[in-house]
Amino acid sequence: MSPELDAAMLAADELLLVPDHLMLRDGPATGHAVLVAGGLFRDVGPAGVLAARHPHLTPLALPGKLLMPGMIDAHHHLTQSFGKSLAYGEPSEIFRRVWVPLESSLDDEFVYLASKLAALESLRGGFTTVCDAGTRAPGDIGAIAAAVQEAGLRCVLGLICNDGGNDSSAGERREILARAGHFLGRWPREGLVHPSLAVSVPEAASDEMLAGVSSLCAEARAIFQTHVNEHLASVERSVVQRGCRPLELLARLDALGPQVLIAHGTLVTPSELMQLRDTDTAVSYNPVASQWKGNAVAPANLMATMGIRFGLGTDATRSDAFRLMDAAEAAQKLAFGLAVGDASSGGGWTWFDHATHEGARAVGLDHLTGEIAAGKHADFLIVDVDTPEMCTSVDLTWDLVRLGNRDQISAVFVAGRLRLWEGWPPDWDARALQRRLAEIAHAAMDRAPILRLHPTAAEHRRLCRARAEGGLGLGPQ
């Protein structure tokens, strides 16, 4: 009988792991093993072959377990996650009423604490990489970088380069572009932090800034992030201010390309889909954001068929990769599949792929992560599939999409190092972090000039009852 798995067994410098199931790029395999050493997958193949090839190592059996790639969150806001409950029931474009006022009130300590808590949430949810779209908090963005590195989360970290539009001065533009160029060289390429540049929405930057930031990212092989065609209000604002839709503006400036990751892309025309495909621009498909506050659902299944690169993003809603895959499939089924009788709506594997290796491709890290393959960084999960829900599985991939649960994650590794064991970090005090942030979070929210339009659940219930008792019989309008 194999000894019961514990964190100490997974702390060795070299590990020859033999799970019951190994999730490879083309699907699950049995009877396979992986060698993890020096932060990388060094060897992958049949268990017997690897045992013979590496006789100095004792194979570590993982009965009832699946070893799979860590998942990629292609769109996050790490400094907003702690205030996620502020967004419940709110109409679109909450960044103007909630996120900008909230982030502008945060100091460096709060940015660090909030980012580390968000990193912990991501790891607990099965994400080993997040793509952060930038913070509006004052101070040094290094506080975010320190937080994710200490938590052990891989991060594409965006620096916001807004200059306010075409009325900005030439001096302002030069200063921002100089800071952006310095930022792109600030961290080593093989580390956990991967610098990126961002513009909140295209109409928040001048033509020169949009073209310049995109060009800098292309030269540095970094990612340029911007929120594009997310809400009706944003599309109309761009048309009024710049004479074209946000995606059309980027295309007009030759600012699209393989270095660009647009967030959301829910409101896209047929010609805009062609522009995305022809320029190899990537998209983050954020289905939970559509459920919570969106005007529409991005046509992700169509994007997949067209060959448009995309990953799945949380948009700082909830950091649960399994629920994100489920939402990705369900949103496509409800928004597009039902009307045309498409019972498959991606077939499960589409959403798993775009949560892993296709997600890594969208955020520009497919050379490093996203799959179990020799030479890639060892970012992976050990998942318990010996559960009542999965014990009779005939399609493990689709079961992970529809039935998978973050409580099944036994271990999370990033760069070959154990970062979480049974939901908690083995080498730092996460509960102390929670207590400290809980002490100061509500004060920060209270002092920020936030405008919420929807009451809390308790107040909403009271209002509904009052209306009903008053004979109106109406819910909130």
UniProtKB/TrEMBL annotation:
<keyword id="KW-0378">Hydrolase</keyword>
<dbReference type="InterPro" id="IPR050287">
    <property type="entry name" value="MTA/SAH_deaminase"/>
</dbReference>
<feature type="domain" description="Amidohydrolase-related">
    <location>
        <begin position="67"/>
        <end position="418"/>
    </location>
</feature>
<comment type="similarity">
    <text>Belongs to the metallo-dependent hydrolases superfamily. ATZ/TRZ family.</text>
</comment>
<dbReference type="InterPro" id="IPR006680">
    <property type="entry name" value="Amidohydro-rel"/>
</dbReference>
<dbReference type="Pfam" id="PF01979">
    <property type="entry name" value="Amidohydro_1"/>
</dbReference>
<dbReference type="InterPro" id="IPR032466">
    <property type="entry name" value="Metal_Hydrolase"/>
</dbReference>
<dbReference type="GO" id="GO:0016810">
    <property type="term" value="F:hydrolase activity, acting on carbon-nitrogen (but not peptide) bonds"/>
</dbReference>
<dbReference type="InterPro" id="IPR011059">
    <property type="entry name" value="Metal-dep_hydrolase_composite"/>
</dbReference>
<protein>
    <submittedName>
        <fullName>Cytosine/adenosine deaminase-related metal-dependent hydrolase</fullName>
    </submittedName>
</protein>
